[in-house]
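Handoff note, outgoing to incoming analyst
You'll be picking up this chain. Sequence as last confirmed:
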Amino acid sequence: MLEGITEKLWYPQSATSQLLVALIVIGCIYLYFNFFVAPVRRLKSLGLPFPAPSAFTGNIFDYGATKQHIAQMEWQKKYGTRYATQFFKAPAIWIAEPDMLKTIMVKDFSNFTNRFSFNQNLPPFDKTLLELKNQDWKRVRTILIPTFTATKLKLIVPFIKDTSDFLINKLVKADKEGEKIDIWQCCGMYSMKVILGTAFGLEFENEEQEVKLTKAAGFFFRQEFGLKQTILQLIAFASPKFFLFIEPKVGGKAVKSINYIVGITKNAIKERRKNMAENRSCRRDMLQHMIEAGG
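Most recent structure output, in case you need it:
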């Protein structure tokens, strides 16, 4: 009987196939250890109760991908106000005690500045406060703090008002003329114009540039669905460098849009610095405040 079973088993005959099988087995063992065994050991070392994680994904799908709020309530009922979970291979500590949260977020905040990064983000998003670490994070935060004072935020209100007036006039005109209008697109354009005008310091020279800029900016915030979009999002999450290479090859527009916005913003910053050096007045938006704070 044993001989019959062994006859049906496949054994690699050549040295190449044997090496390939060995590499696959070693790779599977490495992934299993790296994404399951080692993370579970880290969870146990925290000394907190935790739900049993799944290999590779941890606890993120315990109650479904879109029901994380339900998961948190159920875990709190089961494990109390302090417990741990696993986010892919990273341990996460959950705290539901206001006094302790106040200590973490205020008194001892300097010990909790660095955020977890599953992978290096796409440029230029790898330079945001969510991604920067240690002294780089403190340097950028020091520049941004004076930008978001109540006084300086009030200075951008006129820009928002002008954009709001444009949207209202467009809606009123459409109503008077009985014209059908895509309200989702109008509100989306309004949001993009406010963000581009106040945060990025971009002004529209004509309607064509306005449409091009707002569409490009939409890729920063728009959630698209479909098999291709889902695969690209997974690639961007797992390997940002490979995403930068493959996304334009398959007809994607995200990388092109990012480069377009970044290029125009860099030109705007260059122009602002030139005007400041020549003592010319500059528009008092958030971009200008950040440039002045950064020196």
